[in-house]
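Quick one, C-alpha coordinates below. Sequence please?
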Protein backbone atom coordinates (compact mmCIF):
# COMPACT_ATOMS: atom_id res chain seq x y z
CA UNK A 1 0.00 0.00 0.00
CA UNK A 2 2.86 2.36 0.83
CA UNK A 3 4.34 1.81 -2.64
CA UNK A 4 1.27 3.55 -4.09
CA UNK A 5 2.02 6.74 -2.14
CA UNK A 6 5.86 6.59 -2.09
CA UNK A 7 8.55 4.67 -3.93
CA UNK A 8 9.72 1.14 -3.10
CA UNK A 9 12.76 2.34 -1.12
CA UNK A 10 10.59 4.22 1.36
CA UNK A 11 8.22 1.26 1.66
CA UNK A 12 11.10 -1.14 2.37
CA UNK A 13 12.57 1.27 4.95
CA UNK A 14 9.25 1.51 6.81
CA UNK A 15 8.86 -2.25 6.64
CA UNK A 16 12.28 -2.71 8.27
CA UNK A 17 11.51 -0.17 11.00
CA UNK A 18 8.16 -1.80 11.76
CA UNK A 19 9.78 -5.26 11.75
CA UNK A 20 12.42 -4.10 14.23
CA UNK A 21 9.79 -2.74 16.63
CA UNK A 22 7.78 -5.96 16.45
CA UNK A 23 10.95 -8.02 17.04
CA UNK A 24 11.93 -5.99 20.12
CA UNK A 25 8.40 -6.17 21.51
CA UNK A 26 8.25 -9.96 21.08
CA UNK A 27 11.69 -10.52 22.63
CA UNK A 28 10.75 -8.38 25.62
CA UNK A 29 7.47 -10.28 26.01
CA UNK A 30 9.29 -13.63 26.13
CA UNK A 31 11.59 -12.58 28.97
CA UNK A 32 10.44 -13.78 32.38
CA UNK A 33 11.47 -12.70 35.86
CA UNK A 34 10.24 -14.90 38.66
CA UNK A 35 10.97 -15.59 42.28
CA UNK A 36 12.78 -18.88 42.43
CA UNK A 37 11.50 -21.67 44.62
CA UNK A 38 11.88 -25.42 44.92
CA UNK A 39 9.65 -26.03 41.90
CA UNK A 40 12.52 -25.22 39.49
CA UNK A 41 12.83 -28.85 38.38
CA UNK A 42 14.48 -28.21 35.00
CA UNK A 43 17.71 -26.83 36.47
CA UNK A 44 20.84 -28.72 37.48
CA UNK A 45 21.11 -29.46 41.23
CA UNK A 46 23.66 -26.68 41.82
CA UNK A 47 21.34 -24.19 40.11
CA UNK A 48 18.08 -25.07 41.85
CA UNK A 49 16.77 -24.44 45.36
CA UNK A 50 15.48 -27.98 45.92
CA UNK A 51 16.37 -29.00 49.46
CA UNK A 52 18.31 -25.80 50.18
CA UNK A 53 17.78 -23.32 52.96
CA UNK A 54 17.65 -19.70 51.83
CA UNK A 55 18.44 -17.16 54.58
CA UNK A 56 15.60 -14.78 55.49
CA UNK A 57 17.64 -11.79 54.30
CA UNK A 58 18.03 -13.31 50.82
CA UNK A 59 15.68 -13.49 47.85
CA UNK A 60 16.45 -15.53 44.74
CA UNK A 61 15.05 -14.51 41.36
CA UNK A 62 15.48 -16.34 38.08
CA UNK A 63 15.70 -14.50 34.79
CA UNK A 64 14.95 -16.39 31.57
CA UNK A 65 15.46 -15.78 27.86
CA UNK A 66 17.22 -12.58 26.68
CA UNK A 67 18.22 -9.68 28.91
CA UNK A 68 17.35 -6.53 26.99
CA UNK A 69 16.32 -2.99 27.93
CA UNK A 70 12.77 -3.87 29.07
CA UNK A 71 13.87 -6.66 31.40
CA UNK A 72 15.24 -4.45 34.18
CA UNK A 73 11.80 -2.86 34.50
CA UNK A 74 10.31 -6.34 34.91
CA UNK A 75 12.77 -7.04 37.72
CA UNK A 76 12.14 -3.69 39.41
CA UNK A 77 8.36 -4.26 39.23
CA UNK A 78 8.70 -7.75 40.67
CA UNK A 79 10.65 -6.37 43.64
CA UNK A 80 8.19 -3.52 44.18
CA UNK A 81 5.39 -6.04 44.69
CA UNK A 82 7.18 -7.37 47.76
CA UNK A 83 6.36 -5.85 51.11
CA UNK A 84 10.01 -5.82 52.19
CA UNK A 85 13.14 -5.75 50.06
CA UNK A 86 15.74 -8.41 50.75
CA UNK A 87 19.16 -7.43 52.03
CA UNK A 88 20.67 -9.55 49.27
CA UNK A 89 19.11 -10.33 45.89
CA UNK A 90 20.50 -13.29 43.99
CA UNK A 91 19.72 -13.06 40.30
CA UNK A 92 19.95 -16.43 38.57
CA UNK A 93 21.09 -16.01 34.98
CA UNK A 94 21.42 -19.68 34.01
CA UNK A 95 18.55 -19.41 31.51
CA UNK A 96 19.73 -16.10 29.97
CA UNK A 97 21.51 -16.83 26.71
CA UNK A 98 22.08 -13.27 25.47
CA UNK A 99 22.19 -9.66 26.53
CA UNK A 100 22.86 -6.39 24.76
CA UNK A 101 24.28 -3.04 25.81
CA UNK A 102 20.86 -1.68 26.78
CA UNK A 103 20.24 -4.72 28.98
CA UNK A 104 23.64 -4.32 30.60
CA UNK A 105 22.98 -0.62 31.22
CA UNK A 106 19.61 -1.49 32.74
CA UNK A 107 21.28 -4.09 35.01
CA UNK A 108 23.87 -1.50 36.04
CA UNK A 109 21.12 1.00 36.89
CA UNK A 110 19.22 -1.66 38.85
CA UNK A 111 22.41 -2.52 40.75
CA UNK A 112 22.99 1.16 41.60
CA UNK A 113 19.41 1.53 42.87
CA UNK A 114 19.88 -1.47 45.16
CA UNK A 115 23.25 -0.13 46.31
CA UNK A 116 21.80 3.29 47.17
CA UNK A 117 19.24 1.53 49.39
CA UNK A 118 22.00 -0.45 51.12
CA UNK A 119 21.13 -3.73 49.40
CA UNK A 120 23.41 -6.16 47.54
CA UNK A 121 23.12 -7.91 44.20
CA UNK A 122 24.69 -11.29 43.47
CA UNK A 123 24.67 -12.88 40.03
CA UNK A 124 24.58 -16.64 39.57
CA UNK A 125 25.30 -18.82 36.57
CA UNK A 126 25.83 -16.33 33.75
CA UNK A 127 26.45 -17.92 30.35
CA UNK A 128 29.47 -17.04 28.23
CA UNK A 129 28.00 -14.20 26.11
CA UNK A 130 26.39 -12.24 28.97
CA UNK A 131 29.40 -12.88 31.23
CA UNK A 132 31.92 -11.75 28.61
CA UNK A 133 29.90 -8.60 27.97
CA UNK A 134 29.74 -7.83 31.72
CA UNK A 135 33.48 -8.47 32.10
CA UNK A 136 34.40 -6.32 29.10
CA UNK A 137 32.23 -3.46 30.37
CA UNK A 138 33.71 -3.70 33.88
CA UNK A 139 30.32 -4.43 35.47
CA UNK A 140 31.58 -7.56 37.27
CA UNK A 141 34.34 -5.48 38.85
CA UNK A 142 31.84 -2.79 39.92
CA UNK A 143 29.52 -5.49 41.28
CA UNK A 144 32.26 -6.49 43.70
CA UNK A 145 34.76 -9.28 44.06
CA UNK A 146 33.03 -12.61 44.58
CA UNK A 147 29.56 -11.29 43.78
CA UNK A 148 29.36 -13.03 40.39
CA UNK A 149 29.04 -16.72 41.18
CA UNK A 150 29.12 -19.84 39.02
CA UNK A 151 25.77 -21.16 40.27
CA UNK A 152 23.03 -20.75 42.87
CA UNK A 153 24.89 -22.90 45.42
CA UNK A 154 27.95 -20.65 45.37
CA UNK A 155 25.73 -17.54 45.41
CA UNK A 156 23.93 -18.80 48.53
CA UNK A 157 27.30 -19.50 50.16
CA UNK A 158 28.46 -15.97 49.26
CA UNK A 159 25.22 -14.51 50.64
CA UNK A 160 25.76 -16.33 53.95
CA UNK A 161 29.31 -14.94 54.11
CA UNK A 162 28.06 -11.39 53.50
CA UNK A 163 25.32 -11.76 56.13
CA UNK A 164 27.83 -13.08 58.70
CA UNK A 165 30.22 -10.20 57.93
CA UNK A 166 27.44 -7.65 58.28
CA UNK A 167 26.29 -9.08 61.63
CA UNK A 168 29.80 -9.11 63.15
Amino acid sequence: MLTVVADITVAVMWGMVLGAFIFIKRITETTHVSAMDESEMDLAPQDSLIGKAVPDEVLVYQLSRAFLFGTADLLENALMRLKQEPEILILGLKQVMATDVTGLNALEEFHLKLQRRGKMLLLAGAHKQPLMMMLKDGFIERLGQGNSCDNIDSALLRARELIATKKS
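The chain has a mean pLDDT of 80. Residues 32-167 form a domain with the Transcription Regulator spoIIAA fold (CATH 3.30.750.24).
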